[in-house]
Amino acid sequence: LAKTTQPISMDSYEGQEVNITCSHNNIATNDYITWYQQFPSQGPRFIIQGYKTKVTNEVASLFIPADRKSSTLSLPRVSLSDTAVYYCLLNQAGTALIFGKGTTLSVSS
Amino acid sequence: EPEVTQTPSHQVTQMGQEVILRCVPISNHLYFYWYRQILGQKVEFLVSFYNNEISEKSEIFDDQFSVERPDGSNFTLKIRSTKLEDSAMYFCASSEGQGTGHEQYFGPGTRLTVT
User: Fold this and answer.
1) Of the N and C termini of chain A, which has fewer Cβ atoms inside 10 Å?
2) Cα(A19)–Cα(A71) distance, integer angstroms
3) Which whole-number Å values give the CA distances from B71 to A103, B50, B108, in the listed order?
4) Do residues B100 and B31 touch, judged by C-beta distance below 8 A?
């Protein structure tokens, strides 16, 4: 049973910022919030991980409020190549990742 | 940048045959995993491996499956007698497992087709 809830799909246009929100009301103290991207017939690709507040890397930003019951993945200025499935997951060191259906992001020109 | 590699990229086998899927995890990682994804469905956890033993496994990982780390670099998944429903993409992943750097890195997958 997936421990996170996220929208099934989102649509965007090239150049826009996309924010995907994930809720995880029952997050455990030891859980980290991790986002993956998956293209068809490829392995999930790690995007970003955080525990609290804000994390930013060269690809995305992750916003986590103080209560950690939700998180938002922000993709700045998306392009057609960002069309993919995005997964929000909770994980601890060495434990199984439980994937849900993710959010299918479609970027149009 | 270090990456997880998997071989073969595609394996076709007949029902009832044994298959071995191979993975080379990232060299300093301590935890190893197998997942599978049936076409059009979710990624499903199969098994995790740490310190030369299985640390966690799912209901999918029954007696037909086994894992092994035969040497310091390879991590294998064996399916003893394949069934049609074993047809899927099989992904290997690895993680450091310590501190905050325990995100799992996935390989490109092996597409297993059972006929």
Assistant:
1) N
2) 10
3) 38, 14, 21
4) no
Query: CA–CA separation, A35 vs A60, rounded Å?
Result: 10
The confidence band for A24, taking pLDDT boundaries of 50, 70 and 90, is very high
Write out the two tokens for A87: 């997964």
Q: Is the peptide bond before B8 cis (omega within 30 degrees of 0)?
A: yes
Q: What percent of chain A stands above pLDDT 70?
A: 98
Judged by CB atoms closer than 8 Å, whether chains meet at B109 and A41 is answered as yes
B55, B103, B111, B112: best to mutate for the A interface, most A CBs within 10 A: B103
Residue B13 sits at φ, ψ, to 5 deg, of -145, 160
Binning pLDDT at 50, 70 and 90, where does residue A70 land? very high
Residue type, A11: D
Nearest residue to B36 (alpha-carbon basis) of B3, B68, B73, B6? B6
Chain A (31-90) residues lying within 8 Å, Cβ to Cβ, of chain B: 32, 34, 36, 38, 41-46, 49, 51, 87
CB B107 within 8 Å of CB B91: yes
Cβ B11 vs Cβ B113: under 8 Å: yes
Which residue from A41, A94, A101 is facing B42, i.e. has the nearest CB? A101
Per-residue model confidence (pLDDT) at position B99: 52
Tokens of A98: 């439980």
